[in-house]
Design goal:
This protein is α/β, with parallel strands linked by helices. It has helices at 15-27, 40-48, 74-87, 102-110, 154-166, 176-203, 210-214, 218-222, 230-239, 241-264, 267-282, 308-318, 346-358; strands at 7-11, 32-36, 54-55, 67-70, 93-96, 118-122, 143-148, 170-173, 296-300, 323-328, 339-343, 363-365. The strands form 3 sheets. The chain has a 5-stranded parallel beta sheet with strand order 3-2-1-4-5, covered by helices on one side. The protein has a 4-stranded antiparallel beta sheet with strand order 10-11-9-12, covered by helices on one side. It has a 3-stranded mixed beta sheet with strand order 6-7-8, covered by helices on one side. Helix 3 (74-87) runs parallel beside helix 4. The longest helix has 28 residues, at 176-203. The radius of gyration is 24 Å and the shape is globular.
C-alpha cells in the first residue's frame, strides 16, 4: 500500500471478514483496522488478539477509511449502503465478500455508488463459522474474484488487485454477471443436485433403514455438500435465480438424453457420457482451492486384531498431526480402506499417509 497511513474498516467479523482482517494485520502491521459487528464477542476477540486497532459503535465512524469491507450477510450489507453513501470520502473503495453479486450490484447502482465499489469473493469456506474460526492464512493461495463496477477508476481496481496479491490471494477479474454464472455452475447447482440425490435415496428408504447404511461409501462422498446450512442455501438460490434455473434446465436435458440412451441400449452414447466426464474431472487440479470446500482424507485398511485401530490413531497423534475426524466405512465399493481419517489440510493428510505406510498399514490417500 502506498499511503503512510492506511485505514480499513470491516463491517462484520465472521470467518471471512475476520480472516481477511487478520491477514492484513500480519502483512501490513501498521494499518489502522476498524471493526463493526453486532456480535460483541467477536469484536472483543479481535481486540484481544490485536487484529483490530479499535472497534466502532456506528458505521459513521468509518468515514476516514480508505477501504471498507462488507462482510455481513448480503441483506445487512445492502441496508448499510445509504449510511456509507453519506459518510465515505471520494477516494474510498467499498468491497464485499459475498458469493452472489447481482443483489449487491443492483443496490449499489440504486444508491449511485458505482464509482466506489469493487466487489469481491474469496473462494474459501469452512464447516466452522464466526471470528473464533478465522485465521490469517485462509485466503492465502486462494482464488479471489474481483468484480469491479463499470465506472470505478481502473487504477483503483489495479491497486485493489495488488493489495489482494500482497495478502497472498490470487485475484481473478470478472464482471458481476459472469461471476454469478460461474459460481452457479461450480457451486450453487451442485448443491441442488447433491440434495436432490439425497432426497431421491431417502424416498426409497425401507423400514430397516438399509439404504442409509449402504450409502455410507461413495454416495456419501458425492453428496457431502448436501449437509450445508439450508437457510444459507435458501438465500443463495433466491439471490441467483436466473443462472441457477438455466443451469438446472441444462442438467435436466442431459439427464433426459441419458434416459433415452439407456432405454434404447445405446452403448456408444452411454460410454461417451462417462468418458467425457472422466476426462474433464481428471483435468481438474488435485489440490486447487475452489468454491466448494475440500475434504482432505486418508483411507486405511485395519487388520482384524486387537489394538490395530488405536495404534494407527496413536501414531498420528504422537507425530503431532492434527486429526479432524475419524470414521468407519462398511460400504467399500470404491476399494478404499475401512478407516476414514479426515484432516484440516492436504499437508497433514500426506504426512499421515506416509507415516501409516511406514508402519505397514495399507493406505489409500486422495
Amino acid at each position: 500500500m502506498k499511503h503512510t497511513h492506511f485505514s480499513i474498516g470491516f463491517i462484520g467479523l465472521g470467518l471471512i471478514g475476520g480472516s481477511i482482517a487478520q491477514s492484513i494485520r500480519r502483512i501490513f502491521p501498521d494499518t489502522e483496522i476498524l471493526g463493526f459487528d453486532v456480535d460483541q464477542a467477536a469484536l472483543a476477540l479481535a481486540l484481544e488478539d490485536r487484529t483490530l486497532t479499535r472497534t466502532v459503535t456506528s458505521i459513521e465512524e468509518m468515514r476516514d477509511c480508505d477501504y471498507i469491507f462488507l462482510c455481513a450477510p448480503v441483506h445487512y450489507n445492502i441496508a448499510y449502503l445509504p449510511i456509507l453513501k453519506q459518510i465515505i470520502r471520494d477516494s474510498c473503495i467499498v468491497t464485499d465478500v459475498g458469493s452472489v453479486k447481482s443483489d449487491i450490484y443492483h443496490a449499489i447502482h440504486e444508491h449511485h455508488m458505482d464509482d466506489h465499489f469493487i466487489g469481491g469473493h474469496p473462494m474459501v469456506g469452512s464447516e466452522r463459522s464466526g471470528y473464533d474460526a478465522a485465521n490469517d492464512r485462509l485466503i492465502e493461495n486462494t482464488y479471489y474474484f474481483v468484480t469491479p463496477s463499470n465506472t470505478v477508476d481502473p487504477q483503483k481496481v489495479t491497486d485493489f488487485r495488488t493489495f489482494l496479491e500482497d495478502l497472498g490471494a490470487i485475484p481473478i477479474i470478472y464482471t458481476p454477471n459472469r461471476h454469478d454464472e460461474i459460481t452457479a455452475y461450480i457451486s450453487h447447482i451442485p448443491h441442488v443436485i447433491a440434495s436432490s440425490l439425497v432426497n431421491l435415496v431417502a424416498s426409497q428408504e425401507d423400514e430397516r433403514g438399509m439404504l442409509r447404511q449402504l450409502a455410507a461409501g461413495g454416495f456419501k462422498d458425492i453428496t457431502r455438500i448436501a449437509s450445508s446450512n439450508p437457510v444459507v442455501w435458501e438465500h443463495i438460490l433466491l439471490s441467483n435465480p436466473q443462472h441457477i434455473a438455466e443451469g438446472l434446465r441444462t442438467f435436466i436435458t442431459e439427464l433426459e438424453q441419458m434416459i433415452t440412451a439407456v432405454e434404447e441400449g445405446n452403448a456408444g452414447e452411454i460410454h461417451s457420457f462417462f468418458d467425457s466426464a472422466k476426462n474433464y474431472r481428471n483435468s481438474i487440479p488435485e489440490h486447487a482451492t475452489g468454491v466448494i470446500r475440500m475434504n482432505h482424507e486418508v483411507y486405511v485398511d485395519i487388520p482384524d486384531e486387537p489394538g490395530a485401530l488405536a495404534k494407527a490413531v496413536t501414531y498420528i497423534g504422537e507425530a503431532g498431526i492434527n486429526l479432524k475426524n475419524i470414521g468407519i466405512t462398511h460400504n467399500r465399493e470404491d476399494n478404499e480402506g475401512v478407516l476414514r481419517l479426515c484432516f484440516y489440510d492436504n499437508e497433514s493428510a500426506e504426512q499421515a499417509a506416509a507415516l501409516l505406510t511406514e508402519y505397514q498399514y495399507p493406505v489409500y490417500a486422495r
